Amino acid sequence: MTNTLEDLYEEYGRYIYHLCLKLTRNKEEAEDVMQDVWVKVIRYSDRLEDVDHVKGWLTTICMNTFRDRYRKNVRHSEHVMNQPSTLDVPILDLVASDTLTPGDLVEQNDIQLLVRQKVGELDAIYRTTIEYFYVQQYSLNEIAEVMKVSIGTVKSRLFRARRYLKEMMIDDNATREYVIA
Hints:
Arc Repressor Mutant, subunit A, about 0% strand, 2 domains, mainly alpha, Rna Polymerase Sigma Factor, Chain: A, elongated
């Protein structure tokens, strides 16, 4: 098997390196990605006999390795930043928190109350459809069964209900700013 891996490297090594270089646009990074690719190739060498298109298989491994590395770097950079020397507060104070502030909670509750009021103003058929779908989280099939209508009718009612709700919220000065255009 080692002989086969050596042959594989001889035949496709330059191709994989140039692909890595094209993806990363950085020589050192390309070498790192290429090393990761060949580690995976060695790890999965027992599957090599089942591969019909070796170049395609290697390309897929290369692309996936690059994507994984890129995603890891993006996730890492979202949470780790370089602190400027002129900054007077600790960098961790600038990182957004997952918990809502009391002000955010009050605003969220106000929005929920306003939306509930507007849903209450809808015609009964639309209000019921919205409540089944969003509040009770029924599927379209379940709503159709309960309301004894077709799924198409349920979809139409949901579409109209959302449209009417949006129009009502846009017409009201208190809720206009919360509507996404």
